[in-house]
Specification:
heterotrimer; A: 227 residues; Alpha-Beta Plaits; three-stranded mixed sheet; three-stranded antiparallel sheet; 6 helices; 8 strands; 13% strand; B: 202 residues; alpha/beta; Beta Polymerase, domain 2; 2 domains; five-stranded mixed sheet; two-stranded antiparallel ribbon; 4 helices
């Protein structure tokens, strides 16, 4: 019969219309922004830099190795290495980024910087409401905007953060065990030699801390990264 | 999937089937093992038709057409040359001197065709056509009359590499705009500065 | 231009009128333009014009390392990033001889078939929208597509730009909960396909609009290199999942739907039937997936240097044959990187399908080709 197909189709729309009152599967929209769907844990948006402790500058994990800068497909990361060094979480002397900028308007959220980072220093954030009225500076994030605490990371990516913390704890324990073994060996050596020469380990810590804080994060005029 | 003859056999088949065709095997050392056949420009069209209509091969489907740019190469090698050198005391001495010799290999543009058979469900057979050089003679015969699927892809190779496909029904730029002058996929292409582009569309 | 001036542009009997359809027209699915020459309502010439979205994807990839091309492939056919990833990593795996662990192959099949499902659902919704079924079918299709995108997000972190596969495996493992979610979802998907079919399959208006419209003959389809559901709607049994048996596709039982007429209706039905087959493959993949590694341990992602040579890898993407042709010169960057874009090559015969048809049929014929301009223009 002519028109049968149309009636069949209308029945289907009626089923969906009335179904949306009772079936969760048929009513999927929420009233954004008052209501929000929870984001899955794996969700990613733009990168941020992790720091340990409470001081963003001092605790920054980044050692300015510039691997992410080289690997970033759209080249939106710009890093300038520091002149001096500061100790990392195991006490090893490392450089730190004097300048670390990410042009978020160029970033394509691919997460490759996170994958290639050997120091667990860069991770993906979940925030997505980032509109700004400043077209050029507003989306150029410096070290100050990028630095987020480890607690924040634990909050947004709990599983991943727990794994990361475990790994770092292990590394720290290994480093400490190594240091302890070295210390005992040294002590034994010192005891054997009787003349105890003063350890020079303490001097290394003196140079840290400044440098990172001395230079306020400035926005350079141009952020394009030289290949 | 019926088995496809090896490239050497294909070469023999083509040379037997198309009189005068010169076919060379281009080996591929990568694990993919996809070797290709280099055709001469004069007989390329006839070879293509032969491959398409051959009862066993039936390569009725040309999947991919693309250009590859091979730059002029300069190879340097060190050779020992005997030279007559004047000694410090004024006498003539023959000594061996190491000399570097530079050989220039002219580059070329290459059109690569990947053929499959939808009927026999085998492939790929890879054909290559090379232009005489990169500068003034960038011509190869078009295979669009044999496989329609090459139409847009040959236009693209023309647009981005500057390979001129003789016999193509509608050889125009396809991705770049009509007034564009250079060939952006060539290896020696220098992109214009941002401010230079501002007036181009006007 | 005032209304009066527009009226004077109307062609009289026997006169030819040129219309530029697009690039800013909702029915062109993006920035696609057709220079159409009309005699009254009839199309006498049609030239597709594209390149408005051209960004030289291939050059960008040739400038970067092998790894950094993967997120760019997401942006080719931005509805199907998972299959784009797969096509590229398959080519790299062939080029460098990289093995892939079994679990990774299964995960790839699962995400690729989910991609196929959501692409076809979306396409069918858009096609019906082009025919004038404004909104309703599209919203139903997008409602289901959304659920699949949610799964992608919880797996890879992004809904559309997944950047999920890597040469030698996949980036992150999927949890048992995720697999359970997929299982539950695909339990519900057949009902959606049934309802969607009931909504319009027998609709008299749809049949009048689509049957016998935009016919693509079998021989022309083969010669013009048309692939994917469009080719199969013309009755050619050619599915790369069956022909090449890449990945673990030889382990699944599924059918390749074929059409007889090669018209818009067949192409529409092809998508509906392929959605059902995808569900079948998904069920089998979820049943057979086993534990194991997801990455080949020897593969270096960063700084991969394949030996000099070349490789062509291709997969059956939802749009057709998606191939990647790579030439390596032994360095960190591909010397030549070429995408075989199925939706661009499927456009070759757009003119042949549209000649003699009405203008309104051009819109649905184009809709049934299933193009994404990110891939056409690259």
């Amino acid at each position: 019969m002519l028109g049968e197909g149309i009636i069949q189709g209308l029945l289907e729309t009626a089923r969906n219309f009335f179904g949306s009152y009772v079936e969760k599967d048929r009513l999927v929209t929420v009233q954004y922004p008052e209501q929000r769907h929870p984001l899955p844990e794996a969700s990613r948006n733009f990168p941020f830099l992790l720091y340990d402790g409470s001081e963003p500058e001092a605790g920054l994990r980044c050692v300015a190795c510039q691997i992410c800068e080289k690997e970033c497909p759209p080249r939106c990361i710009h890093i300038e290495k520091s002149k001096d060094k500061k100790p990392d979480f195991v006490g090893k002397q490392q450089f730190y980024p004097a300048v670390f900028n990410i042009d978020v308007s160029v970033c394509m959220s691919c997460q490759i910087c996170v994958e290639v980072c050997p120091f667990d220093a860069i991770r993906m954030d979940k925030v997505f409401e980032l509109s700004t009225s400043n077209r050029f500076g507003g989306l150029l994030w410096t070290k100050r905007e990028l630095a987020k605490s480890n607690e924040y990371y634990q909050k947004i990516h709990p599983t991943e953060a727990a794994e990361c913390d475990d790994r770092r704890e292990k590394e720290l324990a290994e480093a400490q065990a190594k240091a302890a073994a070295a210390a005992t060996a040294k002590a034994a050596q010192a005891a054997a030699a009787t003349a105890g020469a003063g350890t020079s380990a303490a001097s290394a810590n003196g140079a840290s801390g400044n440098g990172a804080g001395a230079k306020p994060a400035e926005v350079p005029a141009k952020t394009t990264v030289t290949p | 999937m019926s088995p496809l003859p090896a490239v050497e056999e294909l070469k023999a088949l083509i040379e037997a089937g198309v009189t005068g065709a010169a076919v060379a095997v281009v080996p591929n050392s990568s694990p993919s093992g996809q070797h290709s056949l280099l055709l001469d420009r004069e007989h390329a069209r006839a070879v293509a038709e032969f491959l398409r209509d051959h009862a066993e091969l039936r390569l009725d489907y040309c999947s991919l057409v693309t250009g590859v740019d091979w730059l002029d190469r300069e190879t340097t090698e060190k050779i020992k040359v005997k030279k007559v050198v004047e000694g410090p005391d004024g006498s003539q001495q023959e000594t061996e001197v190491e000399e570097t010799r530079k050989t220039k290999t002219p580059g070329y543009l290459e059109a690569v065709y990947h053929l499959f058979s939808m009927e026999k469900k085998h492939g790929p057979v890879i054909l290559r056509l090379r232009t005489a050089n990169r500068a003034d003679d960038g011509h190869v015969p078009s295979l669009t009359p044999v496989w329609r699927s090459a139409e847009f892809q040959e236009r693209e190779a023309f647009d981005l590499y500057g390979i001129v496909f003789d016999g193509h029904p509608d050889l125009r730029r396809i991705l770049m705009w009509d007034g564009f002058v250079d060939y952006p996929m060539r290896k020696d292409y220098v992109p214009p500065a941002d401010d230079a582009l501002a007036g181009v569309h006007a | 231009m005032s209304v009066d001036e527009m009226v004077t542009l109307e062609a009289g009997p026997g006169e030819i009128m040129e219309v530029s359809m697009g690039p800013h027209h909702p029915s062109t699915h993006g920035v696609f333009r057709m220079d159409v020459r009309l005699e009254g309502e009839r199309v006498v010439r049609l030239k597709p014009v594209f390149g408005y979205l051209h960004r030289n994807h291939e050059k960008i990839a040739e400038h970067g390392a092998y790894l950094s091309a993967i997120p760019y492939t997401d942006r080719l056919d931005y509805l199907c990033s998972m299959t784009n990833n797969w096509g590229y990593v398959l080519a790299v795996e062939k080029l460098a001889g990289i093995p892939v662990p079994e679990r990774a192959e299964y995960i790839r099949v699962i995400v690729a078939e989910l991609t196929r499902f959501q692409n076809h659902a979306g396409l069918v919704g858009f096609l019906l929208q082009d025919m004038g079924a404004s909104g309703t079918p599209l919203m139903y299709a997008f409602r289901e597509r959304e659920k699949i995108l949610d799964l992608f997000e919880s797996l890879s972190g992004a809904r559309m730009m997944c950047n999920y596969m890597r040469f030698g495996g996949v980036r992150v493992d999927c949890s048992a909960e995720w697999l359970e979610e997929v299982r539950q979802l695909i339990g519900r998907l057949p009902r959606f396909v049934d309802e969607f079919e009931a909504l319009l399959r027998a609709n008299e208006i749809l049949m009048a609009r689509t049957q016998g419209v935009g016919v693509l003959p079998r021989e022309l389809a083969i010669n013009a290199g048309v692939t994917g559901p469009m080719l199969r709607a013309s009755g050619v049994n050619y599915d790369i999942r069956k022909v090449d048996k890449y990945g673990v596709y030889d382990r699944f039982e599924f059918q390749v739907p074929l059409g007889d007429h090669g018209d818009v209706y067949d192409r529409y039905m092809m998508r509906i039937l392929e959605m059902r087959e995808s569900v079948k493959i998904l069920e089998q993949a979820l049943r057979d997936i086993s534990d194991g590694p997801i990455m080949d341990p020897k593969t270096r992602l960063r700084g991969l240097r394949p030996k000099a040579g070349e490789a062509y890898g291709r997969i059956e993407s939802p749009k057709g044959e998606l191939g990647f042709f790579l030439v390596s010169d032994g360095t960190m960057n591909p010397y030549r990187y070429r995408v075989r874009p199925p939706s661009m090559i499927n456009l070759t015969i757009l003119e042949d399908m549209c000649l003699g048809q009405n203008v309104a049929d051009v819109v649905i014929t184009l809709g049934s080709v299933d193009i994404v301009l990110g891939e056409v223009d690259r």
